[in-house]
UniProtKB/TrEMBL annotation, chain A:
Listed name of the protein: Cytochrome c oxidase subunit 5A, mitochondrial
Keyword Transcription regulation included in the entry's annotation: no
GO cellular component: mitochondrial inner membrane; respiratory chain complex IV
Membrane topology: Peripheral membrane protein
Lineage: Eukaryota, Metazoa, Ecdysozoa, Arthropoda, Hexapoda
Classification via CDD domains: Cyt_c_Oxidase_Va
Keyword terms, alphabetized: Heme, Iron, Membrane, Metal-binding, Mitochondrion, Mitochondrion inner membrane, Phosphoprotein, Transit peptide, Ubl conjugation
Protein family: Belongs to the cytochrome c oxidase subunit 5A family.
Summary of the function given for this chain in its UniProt record: Component of the cytochrome c oxidase, the last enzyme in the mitochondrial electron transport chain which drives oxidative phosphorylation. The respiratory chain contains 3 multisubunit complexes succinate dehydrogenase (complex II, CII), ubiquinol-cytochrome c oxidoreductase (cytochrome b-c1 complex, complex III, CIII) and cytochrome c oxidase (complex IV, CIV), that cooperate to transfer electrons derived from NADH and succinate to molecular oxygen, creating an electrochemical gradient over the inner membrane that drives transmembrane transport and the ATP synthase.
Pathway: Energy metabolism; oxidative phosphorylation
Molecular function as annotated in GO: metal ion binding
Top-level taxon of origin: Eukaryota
From TrEMBL, chain B:
Keywords assigned by UniProt, alphabetized: Membrane, Mitochondrion, Mitochondrion inner membrane, Oxidoreductase, Transit peptide, Transmembrane, Transmembrane helix
Pathway this chain belongs to: Energy metabolism; oxidative phosphorylation
Membrane topology: Single-pass membrane protein
GO MF, one example: oxidoreductase activity
Subcellular location: Mitochondrion inner membrane
Protein name per the record: Cytochrome c oxidase subunit 4
Family listed: Belongs to the cytochrome c oxidase IV family.
Subunit details: Component of the cytochrome c oxidase (complex IV, CIV), a multisubunit enzyme composed of 14 subunits.
GO terms (BP aspect): mitochondrial electron transport, cytochrome c to oxygen
Major location (coarse): mitochondrion
General function of this protein: Component of the cytochrome c oxidase, the last enzyme in the mitochondrial electron transport chain which drives oxidative phosphorylation.
Cellular component terms per the entry's GO annotation: mitochondrial inner membrane; respiratory chain complex IV
Record field: transmembrane: 113-131
Length: 152, 178
């Protein structure tokens, strides 16, 4: 029993030493740093090119939009333009309107300053694609009431 | 040798069981969504629909693909400028349940919360009054004004805390407060 235990430990130790010897060669970059070195311009560029990909699908659009909505920022108008055009390519009208709503919500307390600016910047795209703003659809105010699931 | 072998076998069988769990969860999730189209990644990896402000695009559409919605989707592939406002709203409601304005609309629940809190606070005051009237004994004699004065007099006589406390404020020569 002792011998088998020693054999096992031996193989485990050997595996560890081989791994640690191999590590400097394979892993040249540590993917665990918290600090991002990406500038704001690079960030905007990254999302714009992502949305501009010609073969983008609905999953990827939703993923990027959800990510943007989870961050502490309001997306730049050029990102929104690219996102709306991506929605057009996958033919999902609801997605475009929902994203506009989400962007408006991201403006937070400064919605009166930021949102008109964004609308002014994306107006050509809206007109080109035939997308309505949430206000034009009447979604700036609650339209339908939802019955509570506890009272059904 | 028998015991470790058995232990490792147990470990392996439990691990095998663990690997099966996500698959089972996935299949049950799919069976619950009916004919609704999976269009994205859910906030917890499951195909579910929740209206969330921090995750506005849920994994599945809100409505099933009925024939009239299917017809709308065909029309959606054409020029969006030719869609009427009603069709656009129908498309939105086919994908999503509530708009942001509806999600954030006040429910008025705070009124019942405040009202119930006040009711319970007043109830507890009544309970306290009942206890005071029918349960508790009267306060002891030491709470009367004479007893409290006598206590103070005695503390002054004992020179309690003479440097920066009670009797430091007492003038012993004139017999009154400084």
């Amino acid at each position: 029993m002792f011998r088998s235990a020693v054999c096992r430990i031996n193989t485990v130790v050997k595996g560890i030493t081989i791994q640690s010897a191999a590590r400097p060669l394979t892993a040249s970059q540590r993917c665990m740093s918290k600090h991002s070195t990406e500038t704001d311009q690079e960030f905007d560029q990254r999302y714009e090119t992502f949305f501009n990909r010609p073969d983008i699908d609905g999953w990827e659009i939703r993923k990027a939009m959800n990510d943007l909505c989870g961050m502490d920022l309001v997306p730049e108008p050029k990102i929104i333009n690219a996102a709306l055009k991506a929605c057009r390519r996958v033919s999902d009208f609801a997605l475009a309107v929902r994203f506009l709503e989400a962007v408006k919500d991201r403006c937070g307390a400064k919605v009166k300053e930021i949102y008109p600016y964004i609308l002014q910047e994306i107006r050509p795209t809206l007109d080109e694609l035939g997308i309505n703003t949430p206000e034009e659809l009447g979604y700036d105010k609650p339209e339908l009431a939802l019955q509570s699931v506890y009272e059904m | 040798m028998v015991v470790p072998n058995m232990a490792s076998r147990l470990l392996m069988s439990s691990l095998r069981h663990l690997q099966k769990i996500p698959k089972a969860g996935m299949s049950s999730g799919h069976s619950k969504i009916g004919g609704r189209e999976v269009v994205g990644y859910g906030f917890n990896g499951q195909p579910n629909y929740v209206d969330r402000i921090d995750f506005p695009l849920p994994a599945i559409r809100f409505k099933e693909n009925t024939p009239d919605i299917q017809a709308l989707r065909e029309k959606e592939k054409g020029d969006w400028r030719k869609l009427s406002l009603e069709e656009k709203k129908a498309l939105y409601r086919a994908s999503f349940c509530q708009t942001f304005a509806e999600m954030k609309a006040p429910t008025g629940e705070w009124k019942s919360v405040v009202g119930l809190s006040l009711i319970f606070i007043s109830l507890s005051v009544w309970v306290y009054m009942g206890m005071k009237l029918f349960v508790y004994r009267p306060l002891p004699d030491s709470f009367t004004d004479e007893a409290k004065e006598a206590q103070l007099r005695r503390m002054i006589d004992l020179r309690v805390n003479p440097i920066d406390g009670l009797t430091s404020k007492w003038d012993y020569e004139q017999g009154k407060w400084k």
